Fold:
Amino acid sequence: MDAAVTIENLKKSYGSVQAVRGVSLTIQPGKIFGLLGPNGAGKTTTIRCLCTLAIPDEGRLEVMGISVVDQPRRVRQRLGYIAQEIALDKVLTGRELLQLQADLYHMPKGVARQRIDQMIALLELGDWADRKTGTYSGGLRKRLDLALGLLHQPDVLVLDEPTVGLDIETRSAVWDFLRQLRAAGTTVLITSHYLEEVDALADRVAIIDQGQVIAAGSPSDLKDKLGGDRITLRVREFTPDDEASQVKAMLLDLPFVQGVILNAAQGNSLNLVVERDPGALTAVQTTIEKAGLPIFGISQSRPSLDDVYLAATGRTLMDAELAAVGQRDLKKEKKQAMKGG
Structure:
């Protein structure tokens, strides 16, 4: 089966900053593909290149077999793009914005009228279609945004962080709608830093970090490859480095422990990969207590996509998010200091 989306060795830099460093992805038709990673990982740059909004430095990109670089106009006919930030003209009604979108795609009037009515019904906008979008809630604006992206019936729909800022009920409605699109044969590519979103929706997922794909496959396969269960142990709220190393060596001697990762960003917590043994948690607790050490917190769980990320990078996705926020804040402080000087 020919791929709906092909990305090979994509590279993109902004000045001295390498945003994407050789990303390769293949997405089959009629599937939901999740691109997971922290803010600043390169997700948005990747899809901007795919959607003809940025010119790649290197790489091959195709949508339904059409070159993104060589035939961008044809690609736009086959592609729908919904950005993270919703930009709607607040003085126009939902129906007027849909008509404007139809005009941009040069739809015949009869076809446009029919599709607009279909989108309004499909996304349950009937009570609001003729009201100005400035009166819409966040959930209604997201529905209208989806309608705009789907109006020309694209083969591939790309959504950048589709549920950021939405309440739980609206997020659930968006998830259900994306599943309906998949069932109808539409290929969907979503970027997200919500683990549960990608785990619940995606047929396949690629985890991206610092502009590179660090893991790819179905969510279940990625988790199964890790093997065993996970035990997260915090000896103290902030465990000293030497003590954490001592405990790591001690736990590695236990026969059911397959590996231990030290997570410095969370006070040197220890993340254990263990065989699926109901007595594993008790055995770890007993080992720590016999060594005369405290236990600040301990839990056992099945592998998650966050464990996949942790195994590949040595930090959790939340740690990466916090680090990215810290770097942005530091850059702002430096700029303000330079202005002040």
